[in-house]
Amino acid sequence: YYVAYTACFRREKMSAGKDTRGIKRGHQFDKVELYKYTEPATSYEELEKMVGDAEEVCQRLGLPYRVKLLCTAELGFGSAKSYDIDMWAPGCGEWLEVSSCSNVGDFQARRANIRYRPAPDSRPQFVHTLNGSGLALPRVLIAIMENYQQADGSITIPEVLQPYVGQKVIG
Description:
Blueprint: E1 2-9, E2 28-38, H1 43-61, E3 65-69, E4 81-89, E5 94-103, H2 107-112, E6 115-116, E7 125-126, E8 128-133, H3 137-148, E9 155-156, H4 162-165, E10 169-170
Antiparallel strand pairs: 1-2, 2-8, 3-4, 4-5, 5-8, 6-7, 9-10
């Protein structure tokens, strides 16, 4: 993958209410974008691998999640196929979108004239591009806190994160 850190700014259509503020619907947030160039013949297979990589993070965290194949009405501009990955947040009773992975075919490559030669003596062809967002940290933190909170209010750290946090429980 190619990766890039991006600062994002969201302009909400909703102007008031409990779901317009806070960590869940922040107007400014950071994320890591995943980007992949593929040959046209393998782009859909590579999309499945990208989704699988995002799923593996969810599995290692031990959090309930789901993968949704988006219908054409929900696809982003230029997307040929997209998946959203949501994590369950029991405290707010919602599935929170934490990642989205898309195959945009040659749409971006045509606009940017990104081509490759399948063989040294062949004509250039447009690559296919895949876009994915690394897991949205604020929403992952919500899912961790809500799924791992104990009766006394403490939060058990997922086992995979314990070496980085340096403890098993917070609180």
